[in-house]
Design a protein that fits this description.
Blueprint: H1 2-13, H2 21-51, H3 56-64, H4 69-79, H5 89-97, H6 102-114, H7 117-127, H8 129-152, H9 178-213, H10 216-224, H11 230-238, H12 245-257, H13 262-274, H14 277-283, H15 289-313
Amino acid sequence: MLLKLADLLIYEWLGLDPETRSGGAIHFFVYDSIKIFLLLASMIFAIGVIRTFLAEDKLKRWMSAGGLWGNLVAALFGAITPFCSCSSIPIFISLLKAGVPLGVTFSFLITSPIINEYLVILMVSEFGFPVTFAYVASGLAIGTIAGAILGRMKLDRLLEKDITSVATPSEGMVKHTFTSRIRFGYQEALDVIRQIWLWVLVGVAIGAFIHNYVPQESIHRLIEATGIFSVPLATILGVPMYGSCAAIVPVAVVLFEKGIPLGTALAFMMAMAALSLPEAIMLRRTMRLALIALYFGITSLAIIATGYLLNALAPLL
């Protein structure tokens, strides 16, 4: 439905050529903007309604209990949500506002774009079950461990103050009606969208440019020529790029078919899914540059380590 609406607006009403880079970039911008705003509005609304059933202190204890347990729960929640790196950010903000620890919210933010149901379906069809299982397990491990490391570093001071302003402790004791729950969820979605809508549009615009103007053939040749250093290079090249899951899997397949090791191809895919320049720009609304750098750095190192591990396990997969 969204794709048909974008096609109608860009190619029929505006008369742009779908074969040109400019037409493709504008189509990407319109389609992804609509998709992200609809997804974030519905998910933030749902989380807002759920919050009315939970006292803030109980939610915080549940997500923080048992060492890595909170990080694993957040990573699993991320795995079942159909978000890219940019559309995960509003949910990340909602979790922070609900009092969930920063490291736990990072586990969600990392895992959500790396794993989702339609990416898994595409991977099964292209790579088979063993590789897909290894990819999903690796994604969950990256989100859980990287989030735990970031949480242990006590970095809350690097968040913007208005992002971390949570409800008063008495909110959990409010006697909500059905109408008040709906109103709370609606207001939560409206408040978050008001805070970040401009950053979303800027991020998607940059993503649209990268998606349509960065030559993938050059990246393929560069990775092929770097031998043992192909994993960190693939990760570094994947970080600034941006694309939907439907586009990411075919890229990894092409890399693998060209003789690039499996772990290298999947590291490129993970970096492209989990970390992007548009995401960094949108995150600047929520945190300082030092925290963005730490988040990108630790996640990139985890992806690199996973790439080498998958290369070593490739003969068994």
